[in-house]
Amino acid sequence: MSFVGFHLGKKTIHATISPISLPMVESASAAYMLQFTIGSFPVVVDIVLSHALNYLGEIFLSDGVAPQLTTLAILARTAVDKIDGKSVRVSAISVVSAPMLVAHTSMGSVGYRTFGSNPPLIVIMGYGGTLETWDPRFVDALAQHHRVVMFDNAGIGKTQALAAPLTIDAMAGQTSAVITALGLKKPDVLGWSMGGMIAQALAVEHPSQVS
Asked: What is the pLDDT of residues 141-179, one digit of tens each?
């Protein structure tokens, strides 16, 4: 591990550079993690070095969690494809870099993020939590086999509140509306804590929408 310092305006930022063990991916030669904190916000930048005869630009990824080898491998392979002159499209490599979206449903607007590929899996957060409460490493692991859809429950974030009194069945109804609006048809469903109660109510009240 190496320690470095650089200036951001009048402030000196102290950072560390650590080598990361990365299996050889074609011409990828090394990987490093640059990590520092600005205020209370942690910044992690993963750097993959490759040998290339022609420089064709760069691929950039940043997030707020420690890098995973699967993420670095995807980044390295994409970089190699770009070096080889292939057309590449880099979307979110980790859920933390997936954009925040809004679904306009029959039960109001719902803030959500989606990451991965089919089959769909909708995950329902517990009491008082937001979609940001899910551990990114957990979601990234699920996204290796599913298109994960995570959303904020009623009255949280960009999700519209529901009429009082708020019930589990009403929140299941809003989840059903999200499934319809996003065209998920019959997704797998996973709930945590109160989200598990919503998932059960969804299965009872809207069985045709639960795999």
From this structure: 898 889 999 999 999 999 999 999 999 999 999 999 999
The two three-digit tokens of residue 137, written as one number: 């490493």
What the block records as the tokens of 95 is: 């859920």
201 closest CA partner among 121, 124, 110: 124
Report helix, strand or coil for 138. helix
Q: Is 13 left (phi over 0), alpha (psi -120 to 50) or beta?
A: beta
- Give the CATH class of 95-209: alpha beta
Residue pair 81/62 in contact (Cβ under 8 Å)? The answer is no
Cα 209 from Cα 211, distance rounded (Å): 7
Query: What would the two tokens of residue 23 be?
Result: 């299996």
Contact 45, 64 (CB under 8 A): no
Helix (H) or strand (E) holding 104: strand 101-105
Indicate the helix (H) or strand (E) that contains 77.
helix 69-83
Nearest to 150 by CA among 121, 93, 118, 112: 112
- Position 10 scores a pLDDT of 72
Q: Which residue has the higher pLDDT, 73 or 5?
A: 5
Q: Is 168 helix (H, G, I), strand (E, B) or coil?
A: helix
- Give 17-44 pLDDT, tens digit per residue: 887 776 555 555 677 777 777 666 677 7
For the chain, the structural domain boundaries read 2-83, 95-209
C-alpha Rg value of the chain to the nearest Å: 21
The one-letter amino acid at 196: G
